[in-house]
Design goal:
This protein has 201 residues and is an alpha+beta fold. Helix content is 21%, strand content 31%. It contains four helices and ten strands. The strands form two sheets. It has a six-stranded antiparallel beta sheet with strand order 1-2-3-4-8-7. It has a four-stranded antiparallel beta sheet with strand order 6-5-9-10, with no helix packed on it.
């Protein structure tokens, strides 16, 4: 039996052009403002049905530059100095060597469909896609259960009615590194899908 074409239209992310970012594993020599770094590494997109918005997604890729800017922001907020500050930055560097991680902020018109943490039973299929079009399945998708104000302080794209998730992907193939030009995150269901793209300069 042939599958029906999705009835939903996929709308491109953002009206403007997303900034290019350096898709490398390098620890930045210079730290930019946290809000600017987060904005640069955040992608947004929307999927619409015939009469209403069906899905809205914002995704922040936790790149080395994001982790460093976040660690400095955290150290400043906690007034860490000396060894304690150095340890916080070292922790952020260690996290870079772990799984690729994306903060996913998801709003669905039907609240029952906002179920990414149900794994294989979820209405949605989420994958990271490398330059060779290889799909990388997540190790886990966990709901970010921290207080709303904390999540919003880290991710300004977090809107009312959105549910935050932390998505971790294995390093089965590199999606960051010298010469890499593009990495994508694809989120799809039986009704359609969206794609978010980080592009190198």
């Amino acid at each position: 039996m042939k599958r029906l074409l999705p009835a939903l239209l996929v709308v491109a992310a953002c009206a403007g052009v997303d900034p290019h970012v350096k898709l490398t594993e390098d620890w930045p020599a210079k730290v930019d403002d946290y809000e600017a770094v987060t904005a640069a590494w955040t992608r947004k997109t929307t999927m619409r049905g015939t009469y209403q918005e069906a899905l809205r997604v914002a995704a922040t890729f936790k790149s080395p530059s994001w982790r460093e800017a976040h660690a400095i922001k955290d150290a400043d907020a906690r007034q860490l100095v000396g060894d304690a500050r150095a340890q916080r930055l070292a922790q952020a560097q260690a996290e870079v060597a772990g799984p690729y991680e994306v903060e996913l902020l998801v709003t669905t018109w039907d609240r029952a469909e906002n179920d990414l943490d149900r794994g294989k039973k979820s209405a949605w299929h989420v994958v990271l896609v490398d330059e060779s079009d290889h799909e990388i399945e997540p190790l886990e998708i966990a709901r970010d259960k921290r207080p709303t104000l904390i999540v919003r302080a880290e991710f300004p794209a977090f809107e009312d009615f959105a549910i935050p998730y932390v998505v971790r992907f294995p390093r089965t193939t590199p999606v960051l590194g010298e010469g890499i030009q593009r990495v994508r995150l694809r989120m799809s269901s039986e009704r359609g899908g969206v794609q978010l793209i980080w592009q190198a300069p």
